[in-house]
Amino acid sequence: MRKSLTRKIVLTSLLSAFATLAFMLENLFPPLILPGAKMGVSNVFILLSVYFLGGKYAVAVLIVKTTLGSLFSGNLSSIIYSLPSGLFALSIELVLIYIVKNVSIVCISVTGAILNTTLQNATFCLVSSTIEYLAYLPYLALIGVIGGITVGLIVYFAVNKLPIFNEKNNADLNP
Amino acid sequence: MKIFVDTNLKKPKTFLKGDLFVYPVLLVLVIILFFAFAFPKDQNSFEGFKCEVDGQVVFTYLFNSNDVDIENSKKELVSLQKFDFGYLITVKSNLGEERYNVIKIDSENKTACVFESTCSNSKDCTHIPAIESSGAVYCAPHKLKLSPLGNGNFRDPITGGL
Q1: Amino acid B88: pLDDT
Q2: Using the beta-carbon criterion (under 8 Å), do B30 and A105 form an inter-chain contact?
Q3: A33 shares contact with chain B (CB less than 8 Å)
């Protein structure tokens, strides 16, 4: 039991660190077409934590990623619009995974990406009172679809194909 | 012995039957977004551009007169350069020295964008495509907003005032 808990904590912090790193690296690149539009590579690690640890841990990874990510990128105020939309998108993803079931990872990821970008943009419009910015919302949703498919495929290959997650290899690692 | 996986979830797949119900919902959502927010361009009431900082108008530009009208109280903050294509307008931020946005107005193509900015490392506002009769550029750190200027009530997507 104790061993299992330690392992979970270590894995959660590792995934949080990777997610934060991916988030910050991605911020270094200029946005795709529109600001706020990006692939969302850090979401790979959040979905991985759902598969390896469970929903609760994924929420923790998301909160750590968003908080540290916006802190390090020097734009702490972006938490106001990125955290709520991220939490909402993740909760819908968890509903699809645990309650609806029978939904593929690509579909889950696309749903999350669309919800995340649109909500984030809508919150941004409300906070900054820039209603005109809503005009970009449908295009952000479309870019979200592309990002969602990419993230979904990465998660699929990571869980299914990487040797480190293969049970045969794991048996050797476990003394 | 499982070493990494602590959940009873099945391994993810790229396609499952449930997708057939989720994708249509998403498609409808995106179509609704397009109908609600991607406004058709209304050229009739499109007269120029307006620039605000922190909710207060700094300057307006009208196509008819091809002239930039700077608010009297903001004259110190704004400097103008006229070119063949239109104007480059530097708006200093009151957040500190060396903080400014350069706005480019293209009078031939009737577009405007933030050309240069010192707002943050990522300079999001400079990456927003040039606006025409819809859309807006908002620079969050400097609270600067560049938007089209219309006749009376410009399209308000929230109330749907067309």
Answers
A1: 93
A2: no
A3: yes
CA B132 to chain A, closest CA, distance in angstroms equals: 12
Integer Cα distance of A67 and A70 in angstroms: 6
**Please, what is the average pLDDT of chain A?**
86
Which tokens sit at B71? 């608010």
Q: ipTM score of the complex?
A: 0.83
Q: Residues 2 to 31 of A: which have CB under 8 A from any B CB?
A: 4, 7-8, 11, 27, 30-31
Instruction: State the alpha helices, DSSP H only, in B38-109.
Output: none
Q: In what order do the strands lie in the sheet with B86-92?
A: B78-82, B86-92, B100-106, B111-117
- Output the six-digit token pair for B48: 């120029």
> Is there a contact between A50 and B9 if contact means CB atoms under 8 Å apart?
yes
What span, in angstroms and rounded, lies between the C-alpha atoms of A39 and A168? 33
> Is B34 in Cβ contact with A104 (below 8 Å)?
no
Closest CA to A47 of A151, A118, A145: A151
CA B10 to chain CA centroid, Å, is 43
Cross-chain residue pair A110–B120, CB shorter than 8 Å = no
The answer to whether the Cβ–Cβ distance between A156 and B14 falls below 8 Å is yes
CA-CA distances (angstroms) from residue A67 to A17, A53, A79, A159, B76?
A: 12, 21, 7, 26, 38
C-alpha A126, offset from chain centre: 23
Helices marked H in A53-94 — which ranges?
Answer: 55-72, 79-94
Query: Any idea which residue has 């909160």 for tokens?
Result: A63
What are the pLDDT digits (tens) for A31-40? 777 776 788 8
| CA distances from residue B63 to A101, B49, B91 in whole angstroms, order as listed | 56, 9, 20
To the nearest whole angstrom, how far is the Cα of A152 from the nearest Cα of chain B?
8
How many Å apart are CA B136 and CA B20, to the nearest integer?
36
Asked if A137 reaches chain B (Cβ–Cβ under 8 Å), the answer is: yes
Residue A134 DSSP one-character state: G
